[in-house]
Amino acid sequence: MVIREYKEGLKNIEIHNWLRCFIEPQKAEYFLNHQKIGKIYGVDEWIIKADCSRRKELSEYCYRIEEVRLYTIELE
User: What order of strands is seen across the sheet that includes strand 46-50?
Assistant: First the structure.
């Protein structure tokens, strides 16, 4: 487990970070299981959460990827 500490007392634990991925509508077919959801007309906007280790894999399907980081601090 990687914990990064900052001078302000903040700590970031990497396993608690994730990616917020904005899927390109024309590439959403890659993620759809039509056997389970049936026929649909299309996807207008789709945002998924994924593990940070999947950034490279998902980058070809996304028009934007944001890394969400959670920080902690000990209060006295």
Answer: 46-50, 18-23, 62-68
Average pLDDT over residues 51-74: 93
Given a contact cutoff of 8 angstroms between Cβ atoms, the answer to whether 19 and 51 are in contact is: yes
Tokens found for residue 2:
């990687």
Which pairs with CB-CB distance under 8 Å and at least 24 residues apart come from 41-46? 46/22
What confidence tens digit (pLDDT) does each residue in 2-60 have?
Answer: 888 887 788 888 888 999 999 998 888 888 877 888 887 878 889 999 999 999 999 99
Q: List the one residue out of 22, 20, 3 whose CA is nearest residue 71.
A: 3
Non-local (6+) Cβ contacts of 70 within 8 A are 12, 13, 16, 17
